[in-house]
From TrEMBL, chains A, B:
Keywords: Hydrolase. Residues 42-263 form the AB hydrolase-1 domain. This is Alpha/beta hydrolase. GO terms for molecular function: hydrolase activity. InterPro entries: AB_hydrolase (IPR050471), AB_hydrolase_1 (IPR000073), AB_hydrolase_fold (IPR029058). It comes from the Bacteria. It holds the Pfam family Abhydrolase_1. Gene3D superfamilies: alpha/beta hydrolase.
Amino acid sequence: MKTSEINALTAPTHYIESNGVSFAYRRFGKPSAIPLVGFQHFTGTLDNWDPIILDGLAAEREIIIFDNAGVGNSSGETPDNVLAMTNDAVNFIKALGITKIDVLGFSLGGFIAQYLGEQHPDLINKIIIVGAAPQGTKALHNFPQLIGRAQEKEPMEIFLYIFFTSSQESRNKGKAALQRLYSRTEDRTKAATDQAVMAQMKAITHWGTEKPSISLKKIPHPVLIIQGSNDEMMDSDSSYTLFKELPNAVLTYYPDAAHGSFYQYPEMFVNQTNYFLNN
Amino acid sequence: MKTSEINALTAPTHYIESNGVSFAYRRFGKPSAIPLVGFQHFTGTLDNWDPIILDGLAAEREIIIFDNAGVGNSSGETPDNVLAMTNDAVNFIKALGITKIDVLGFSLGGFIAQYLGEQHPDLINKIIIVGAAPQGTKALHNFPQLIGRAQEKEPMEIFLYIFFTSSQESRNKGKAALQRLYSRTEDRTKAATDQAVMAQMKAITHWGTEKPSISLKKIPHPVLIIQGSNDEMMDSDSSYTLFKELPNAVLTYYPDAAHGSFYQYPEMFVNQTNYFLNN
């Protein structure tokens, strides 16, 4: 297969060993000095990235997505705190021999992005944070209850409930996004185990209750923050708080959108993110 | 001169009569079904538009900028309220025989944009609002004092004080923007008269004290809101309030930026605005 034919739907899953963990990852796109590495949401795996977004970004740079320790097709145990997840991710990146990355962190991945910026500034070039919040965000105290309510629904409804608003237009865009997420038919990843689910739930809930220890003001990197108007899980307001704390952030809110804002406006997100990374 | 050679620096000033007012305007750019009409800030005239922004937008659509009644090179009296300014602007647009426009409203122009969306929905396609606020924004109670403090400074410092933050980087971008605003050397407009200054000051201050009468929730158009992180005049938070009230708005904040956020990031603004208008 030629490089140009490798895209989000066809990129093979590779594995690399680091610190006793076998990390599953996919790597494709236009070769670039600095690859963009994607960090996934609660229970999310390689297959939860929107192909439109991956291919739109891969047109201008190399993309690496991976399953963090204990998630999806990666081995090991999922830690119950964001700092340990960050350290696992850094081990993975170093195992690839990469010394500089751009970061795309979605939800839980956006928490890891904050640790990466503060604790590994030399490894990071630019950061994109979608649907996330700073430490101490009160809305996250209710994370287990929100997930509990979601789990009572049918599988498609869980996705729509978490990531989209209740408007018909948002739901329709959600159904289209879900189709895209399932348009890759072969070499798919395993779902998150109970261990991963429980550990990530603890980490996310704790992110909301813990006293902020990350000094966001010290993150020197350009940051692009994306959020929906109605993210109940993270509380949309908390992205504005994050923006005010970061010294060099651009913040964009999308209309009638919930936690999955970039699933709802993939082309706008690609345009904005490519501009942000290229300039 | 060929159409392609007409740009922000060379576009001649035309005049059209409507309702007893001779409106000064410039019109150029790629012919398009819907022109983008620019509405200026307090005391601003045809020459206060950033040439980088005008030419960046004109590459993809027709641009019309004008001096509203009593301002710059237009005759007549400047009204002391935003609604009457809106009516004057509509008279100008109708005199040109135009039935549908996109709106770019900066500061005071962003107030007019809100009236246009609510009272003239059929005339409007999309709206861009930069550095503005909804009615009732308390920060505007101090508008005369802020302008008073600015007037005590040297001319260049007035511009930097109003539109940029106190950081060296923001100030440097401000000096570059000021150079661009003076790079058109011929056929420049007259400065605002005392009558225009006093009437606009009253209108802007009243915008902050008046009870909201515009029903923002009824504005059906796609709106793009742009604001800086540190706009003291409008209070940056008020753009988030505006975003929450409007049913279909995208909101972007730029870092380390004050009231003149789009002067500071003209290329990012052009990329985002062209995407917004094209899609």
